[in-house]
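Here is the promised in-class demo. Please do not try to memorize the tokens; focus on the logic of going from shape to residues.
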């Protein structure tokens, strides 16, 4: 049994110092006093996940880092209050479970499943204003997608609604597991973006190599490409957490920065504590990733290498939809596996935006979606997701890549 203690003086001080650092992508609340009250109320609300579940995930991620398992992470780009329905969330869980089934069977490795779910309600954005000059939509936890100035004003009460929605979703995830609809564990994750939400539910976990902050808001948390500044609040916050941590690394990441993330986030060399999620784009992965993998490996760290083949391959279609082409997604994954095969490292997992709904948001796949099909069911609140058919096609492609990398690894005397 993992005991979580109230925040003590030392860790409370380190948390306060972390949160004083510059924090990118934070909203300016309409009523800061109300925001403080909401953070306090969230602290009194029940946790979404238990420390025992998070500890079990950490053990499974250690197996991924050792090359004994594969990590499948996926779900909506942005959860929304409107789509937090049983049908939608179950559809997403079923899709993830089916993808895992294909991977486990063909690749012959246990698959650790993490849903982007039960808290994925805040989005980082490239711009601060949209095409109409309104503040951008930053996820249902912050404001509304509706295009009016009032709806786009950040409202702290939305954090309470997001937390309540996450609790309901987590109950559904547990029920999904119990019902036998899936054979194994399924964990939840979200981007640790909105610091007022993230700091609201922290206790002290003393079971690790040093006392750390246990977040009750998700099993696995990741820091995004837009908030991974080494002198910023997000990395300083993540450094204090007991939960396993991901860091998205885009094409501007240097090998030195990658080594520094690992040094800061995994000072005790715990296998699988850190997942480096490369999202380089299909055209750059073969060039940018190798020196990063080489330098991090040479530093002696045991990270999980995970590929997000979505975020580096986004573009605007001729008819004005933010989309991604299935072919480029598979090409980035192929490049990721090539790099790891060449370097003798374990291609540990994938991180994808998928839904069980029959949406038309990404191009290609089978049956193929063409640009003219995009308007039919383009439903995402932010970035384009693979639909269930495309997701299964991707699972088959990745299963082949994993199986091939295992054969090559065994031929070269490595045990994956
Ligand atoms: O999901 C990731 C980001 O939030 C998203 O790609 C940002 O999108 P934008 O470039 O339209 O702001
Ligand atoms: C924002 C995301 O990705 P990235 O930080 O890699 O752009 C995301 O995964 O939702």
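The designed amino acids, position by position:
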């Amino acid at each position: 049994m993992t005991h979580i203690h109230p925040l003590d003086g030392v860790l409370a001080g380190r948390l306060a110092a972390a949160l004083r650092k510059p924090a990118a992508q934070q909203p300016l609340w309409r009523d800061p006093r109300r925001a403080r009250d909401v953070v306090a109320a969230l602290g009194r609300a029940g946790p979404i996940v238990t420390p025992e579940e998070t500890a079990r995930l950490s053990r499974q991620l250690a197996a991924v880092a050792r090359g004994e398992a594969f990590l499948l992470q996926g779900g909506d780009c942005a959860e929304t209050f409107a789509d937090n329905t049983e049908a939608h969330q179950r559809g997403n869980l079923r899709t993830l479970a089916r993808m895992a089934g294909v991977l486990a069977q063909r690749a012959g490795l246990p698959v650790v499943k993490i849903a982007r779910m039960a808290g994925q309600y805040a989005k980082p954005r490239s711009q601060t204003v949209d095409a109409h000059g309104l503040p951008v939509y930053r996820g249902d936890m912050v404001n509304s997608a509706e295009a009016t100035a009032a709806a786009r004003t950040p409202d702290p009460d939305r954090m309470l609604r997001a937390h309540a929605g996450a609790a309901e979703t987590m109950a559904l995830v547990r029920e999904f597991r119990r019902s036998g609809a899936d054979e194994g564990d399924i964990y939840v994750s979200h981007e640790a973006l909105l610091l007022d939400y993230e700091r609201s539910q922290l206790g002290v976990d003393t079971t690790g190599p040093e006392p750390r902050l246990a977040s009750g808001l998700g099993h696995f948390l990741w820091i995004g490409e837009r908030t991974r500044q080494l002198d910023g609040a997000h990395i300083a916050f993540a450094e204090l957490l007991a939960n396993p941590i991901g860091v998205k690394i885009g094409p501007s990441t240097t090998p030195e920065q990658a080594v520094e993330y690992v040094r800061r986030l995994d000072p005790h060399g715990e296998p699988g504590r850190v997942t480096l999620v490369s999202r380089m784009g299909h055209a750059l992965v073969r060039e940018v990733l190798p020196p990063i993998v080489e330098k991090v490996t040479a530093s002696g760290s045991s990270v999980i290498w995970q590929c997000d083949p979505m975020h580096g391959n986004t573009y605007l279609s001729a008819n004005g939809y933010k989309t991604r082409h299935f072919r480029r997604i598979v090409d980035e994954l192929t490049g990721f596996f090539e790099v790891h095969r060449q370097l003798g490292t374990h291609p540990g997992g994938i991180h994808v935006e998928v839904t069980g709904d029959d949406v038309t948001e990404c191009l290609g796949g089978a049956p193929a979606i063409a640009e003219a099909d995009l308007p039919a069911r383009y439903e995402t609140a932010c970035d384009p997701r693979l639909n269930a058919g495309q997701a299964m096609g991707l699972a088959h492609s990745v299963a082949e890549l994993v199986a091939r990398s295992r054969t090559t690894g065994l031929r070269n005397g490595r045990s994956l």
